[in-house]
Design a protein that fits this description.
Blueprint lengths: L1 E10 L5 E11 L8 E7 L5 E9 L4 H14 L4 E11 L1 H16 L4 E6 L1 H9 L8
Parallel strand pairs: 4-5, 5-6
Antiparallel strand pairs: 1-2, 3-4
Helix pairs in contact: 1-2
Protein name: STAS domain-containing protein
InterPro entries: MlaB-like_STAS (IPR058548), MlaB_ABC_Transporter (IPR052746), STAS_dom (IPR002645), STAS_dom_sf (IPR036513)
Amino acid sequence: MWTKLVAHCGPTRSGEADMTTIEHEVPLDPPAAEGLEIGVAPAPSGMVDVCVSGEIDFHNAAALRDVLLIALTSHRGTLRLDLAAVTFCDCAGLNALLAARAAALRAGRGLHITAAGRPVERLLDLTDTRSLFA
């Protein structure tokens, strides 16, 4: 199984959404069976909405970090992360989020978690990092 990344990159000249599917080059080994899906959509407000679902772990955290860094360089708005559909997140996932946050701060931008499922909430609470993404 491959990590599937789905990026929605703004409207095209015809007004239709331009969607690109990227198959990341890192295969997932069992038991990481669900994979990872990431949607990136610029909002009319200038913010950038990022929706993540599936498991974030050692096998695919680098892919999440890469997509967030690409979103930061491709768009000018603050990133708003919806992690409500994340079913698992380990320290590698947290490190990916922290790396993207550091890049956002260096660029003078924000990166906020607007929704989080129980696995993400628990990790943020255990590591006392929730306030960094508020």
